[in-house]
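Summary of Year 1 activities. Much of the first year was spent building the evaluation harness for sequence design. The harness presents a backbone, in tokenized form, and records the residue chosen at every position. We chose the following record to illustrate the format because it has been used consistently in internal testing since the harness was completed.
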């Protein structure tokens, strides 16, 4: 990149230098604002499309094996783990592709150690109090992330293998990669162009969509939590504050869902 800068500077008309630098150094094909946001929009759409595809595939594979006499809980656990491994790898692929296109590093999108652990703890305590208040007083257990599973016999006994999936994978593995995608990658690129307020709002809108059953879905409660995660990301600077808060939220939801 710097070699290209020197080459342009040596052979160019000084009056045209700024425009050429912006085109070459400022993101290549993404130098145009329209192109920048058009390409950026493709990332959450592709992410959501894969979520929907994997969900439908999960259902068909589950029905096939459960109908064949296999233990339905074990089948569900295996399919769910495989599905989420595929989703995580898909998100990693999208992030790495985006970093290449936009000429960013992992540190640029918040992948670095937290600067202030007190802020991380404050985020965890804050989201935990919000979630506990919501679950206890509003009775929303199992209605946000687990709308059907919480009502079934799957939660009756903790020896069921799926219970451990929701107690360990959902609270700790999934939030890391969701936050890296939404509050890391998307947040950073939106923030750089139109500011952190829009970054919080738009990344939260995209985050809400992945919890629905269509490409464009919107859930106010999830959107609100997305705003909290986005503000934590902006406040501390790394994604670990939002990851910690997201993990705490999912852990409490999973526990209340099991207790329903």
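For this record, the design step produced the sequence shown next.
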């Amino acid at each position: 990149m710097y070699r290209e800068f020197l080459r342009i500077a040596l052979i160019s008309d000084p009056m045209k230098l700024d425009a050429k630098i912006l085109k070459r150094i400022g993101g290549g094909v993404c130098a145009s604002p329209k192109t920048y946001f058009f390409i950026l929009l493709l990332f959450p759409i592709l992410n959501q499309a894969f979520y929907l595809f994997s969900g439908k595939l999960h259902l068909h594979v589950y029905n096939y094996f459960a109908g064949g006499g296999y233990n339905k809980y074990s089948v569900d656990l295996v399919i769910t783990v495989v599905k989420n491994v595929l989703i995580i790898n898909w998100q990693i692929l999208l992030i790495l592709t985006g970093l290449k296109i936009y000429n960013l590093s992992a540190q640029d999108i918040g992948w670095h150690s937290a600067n202030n652990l007190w802020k991380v703890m404050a985020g965890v305590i804050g989201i935990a109090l919000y979630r506990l208040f919501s679950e206890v007083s509003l009775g929303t257990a199992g209605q946000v992330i687990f709308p059907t599973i919480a009502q079934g016999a799957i939660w009756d006994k903790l020896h069921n293998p799926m219970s451990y999936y929701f107690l360990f994978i959902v609270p700790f593995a999934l939030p890391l990669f969701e936050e890296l995608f939404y509050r890391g990658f998307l947040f950073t690129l939106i923030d750089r162009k139109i500011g952190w307020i829009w970054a919080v709002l738009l990344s939260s809108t995209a985050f809400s969509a992945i919890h629905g059953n269509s490409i464009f879905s919107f859930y106010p409660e999830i959107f609100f939590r997305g705003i909290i995660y986005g503000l934590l990301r902006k406040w501390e600077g790394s994604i670990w504050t939002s990851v910690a808060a997201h993990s705490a939220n999912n852990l409490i939801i999973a526990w209340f869902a099991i207790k329903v």
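Residues 1-27, 141-152 have pLDDT under 50 and may be disordered. Quantitative recovery figures across the full test set are reported in Table 2.
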